[in-house]
Amino acid sequence: AVVSTQSTWESDRRQEDDEGAGAGSVSPECDAWRVQRRPGRGDITGPAAEIGMMGYAKQGQNTKGIHTRLFSRAFIIEDVDSGTRVVFVSVDEAMMGQLVKIGVMEKLSSLFPGVYSEENVVLSATHTHSGPAGFMQYVLFNVPNLGFVAQTLDAMVDGIVQSIITAHGNLAPGKVYHSVGVVDEEASINRSPTSYLANPEEERARYPGNLDKDMVQLSFYNDQGAALGVLNWFSVHPNSMNNTNHFISGDNKGAASLMFEKAMDPDYVAGKTPFVAAFASTNLGDVSPNTMGPR
Questions:
Q1: How many Cα atoms are found within 13 Å in the side-chain-facing hemisphere of 39?
Q2: Is pTM, for the whole model, over 0.85?
């Protein structure tokens, strides 16, 4: 079970109990928020055949089809009083690259002059190990896949920009709920417990175990109380698909997104739902989803 505590940022500074959301405590700094009426989503899948995959750094692990398409999911929050706006984008890829950020910012600067910059746009990769490679500007990262692949980079940049365009065009007054809970199920294991024991004893004494089981979530609602999307952080590696896999996949975090979205909007095709659920990466370093050990 996930046991939650919750705080709320609201557009009207009122405290209230929203059905299904729990008691909220309002942040005193905020008079009015704008969030997207519909969070943004863009397809970033890229080349699905004969391209090296990013994550395991294994030569010969090339794409041979698609398990699930890869997406960019964008969320925008704006403090109306100060005009401060932040964009957080969760991307179904192994990691983020500076070339991707540069390409995204160039397009956003052209589309929305003076609105978005490196300072208020955050691009975060889920760390799936089953996406196409070749989008990094550094040689070391392109060795396993035998070089730079422009198609991969272009698909990422275009999909990310599209997700931000959608979110930008749907800003409206709304609420953001902040929840923190503890995941009691065995959803992950420490893949290197002996290494963890090498940490100083006084540091290890600060934590109940060798895993971070906290789940953090932002839940987005419009001002009528309708759910718009969620942005979730839980520390687990997206490598349920091992290094023998050749199908492009969002792995466990991508699957969680698609299943949550489909549950909220069952009449829509997966990846096309109005509701957007992002399961972003966090402190997942030595945290494995393979609770029965490596396979």
A1: 29
A2: yes
